[in-house]
Amino acid sequence: MTSSHCILFITANLGGGGAERALVNVINHLDRARFRPHLALFQREGVFLGELAPDVPVYELQPTDHGPLHRNWVRMRAIRRLCDRLRPALVMSVKWQVNFSAALTDSILGLGCPLITNEQVALGQLLQSAWQRYVFWPTARHLYRRVARIVAISQGIAVEMARRLALPLDKFRVIHNPIAVTEVRRQAAQPVDISPMACPLLVAVGRLDPQKNLPLLFRAVARVMQEQPVMLYVLGEGRERPRLEALIQSLGLQSHIHLLGFQRNPYAYVKRADLFVLSSDYEGFANVLVEALAVGTPVVATDCPYGPREILADGQYGRLVPPGDESALAQAILAALQERANCDRAALQRRADEFAVERIVPQYEQLLTEVLQSSRRDDSQQVYT
Fold first, then answer.
1. Helix (H) or strand (E) segment spanning residue 232
2. pLDDT value at residue 251
3. In contact, 236 and 206? CB cutoff 8 Å
4. What's the pLDDT score for residue 384?
5. The domain 181-353 belongs to what CATH superfamily?
6. What's the predicted TM-score (pTM) here?
7. Which CATH number is correct for 5-178+356-384, 3.40.50.1370, 3.40.50.980, 3.40.50.2000, 1.10.150.130?
8. Mean pLDDT of 217-242
9. Helix axes 96-108, 68-86, angle to 10 degrees
10. Which alpha helices (DSSP H) does 30-166 contain, by range?
11. Residue 174: strand, helix, or coil
12. CB within 8 Å of 51: residues ≥ 6 apart
């Protein structure tokens, strides 16, 4: 019987985002007979730390921050020291800043094993500054050639990064984020304090961040209110809260739009909503859409890069509207509310099942096995040539 392989996962922290939740799902559900997951964090913090399986060792790489240049050197040395200590068979890094640090470490100091990067966001939309355009991308083109495989959580990310990095598409593997569908449904059934309403309830979930474009949603709600009263609950926290509170005030919607902050169990709210709405300018995958489908809640989403179109199968399982178009978003909300009584909620749930951990994690296990086997072949060839 072969022994299990040590796999070192690296990310920044386990904060309350979709990438972090997906990583915990992968780690928790890996076959322990084949893989022994370890987790390294730049900072040992985040709401999902408590959800990590108890058999997973956690390491902190960078307790303090002393500026960008020193920060990256500290990260590189810490990653290398941990690899020397653990001797992992493979390293997988998650999120673009961490991927860059891991690839830089591999290039300069060496990891001693193959590296897989996991890309969670559309970098073309995210990296817009002059430094990012003229420093990050040229450097990344060099670094990513050493990476064994690049996991993209949507087809759109894979195509964009292959073009920007001048890499062949076969270096990429599209693996959607795994959703703990059974657990989502279990939590969704729990009670939540929502007062009876005389109007439909809309729910949005996500960080209060410019990427999510909640001002677009608020203005769309203002348009909807001209034809039909609705209530909007926004679940999430972030730096945009003061700006969003001011906008709610200026729109006169204080009694109709409520920022509820981060909720450990957003699913109970989503299940009781008449409609789930995503207004993002860009995404990597949009886990929250799958979670809404999992509890049978109809969805309206911007057709942003990337994820919503793939999840909703070109609009088969929810309405797609152009990003940034508040009129189209308002009309889609009104149409979806009018048709919600005829919504095939069982079909939405079946669609969500296609992204369940039971279906997605085996794809990760297959990828890990392929890379390990390829690495062994390469080592054998080096020995005998």
1. strand 231-235
2. 98
3. yes
4. 37
5. Glycogen Phosphorylase B; (3.40.50.2000)
6. 0.91
7. 3.40.50.2000
8. 97
9. 70
10. 68-86, 96-108, 123-126, 130-131, 137-143, 155-165
11. strand
12. 24, 28
